[in-house]
Amino acid sequence: MPVVGISRSAKGYCMISVLETMKTYCAEDGLTEEAIVTKLRTCHYHYLFLHTSLRHNPSGTSHWGEFGEGGLLWGECCGRHFEWFDGGPVSELLCKVRELYGLDIGAPFRNIIVPSERRPRPLYLGTATQIGAIQTEGIPSLLKVLFPSNVAGLPVKYIRDLLFNPPTYGIAAAIQATCRLMSGITCSIPEFTCVSAAKLVKLLESKEANHIEFLRIKNVVDEILLMHKNPELNSILQMLLDPTWGATGLKVEWGTLVTECEMISHRVSQMIHLDGETDQEINSISIIPDEFFEDTESSWKGRVKRIHAEKAFAEVDSAAGDIAKAVTEDFLPIVSRVKAVISTLGGPKGEISYAREHEAVWFKGKRFAPSVWSGAPGEEQIKQLKPATDSKGRKVGEEWFTTSKVEDALSRYHEACDRAKSDVLELLRGLSAELQSKTNILVFSSMLIIIAKALFSHVSEGRRRKWVLPTLVEFHRLEEKESSEDTHKMEIAGLSPYWLDGVQSNAVRNTIKMQSLFLLTGPNGGGKSSILRSICAAALLGICGLMVPAESAVIPHFDSIMLHMKSYDSPADGKSSFQIEMSEIRSIVTSATPRSLVLMDEICRGTEMMKGTCIAGSIIEALDAIGCLGVVSTHLHGIFDLPLQTKRTVHKAMGTEVVDGHTEPTWILIDGICRESLAFETALKEGIPEKLIRRAEELYGSINKKHLYSEQMNDRIEQLCPDSSVDNLDEVTDSSRRIYVKPVSSGQDESNHTDVLKEVESAVTMICQKRLIELYKQENMAELVEVSCVTIGAREQPPPSTVGVSCVYVIFRPDKNLYIGQTDDLLGRVRAHRSKEGMQNVKFLYFTVPGKSIASELETLLINQLSSEGFRLVNKADGKHRNFGSSNLLLGGVTLHQ
Question: Which end of the chain has fewer beta carbons closer than 10 Å to its terminal beta carbon, N or C?
Answer without folding.
Answer: C
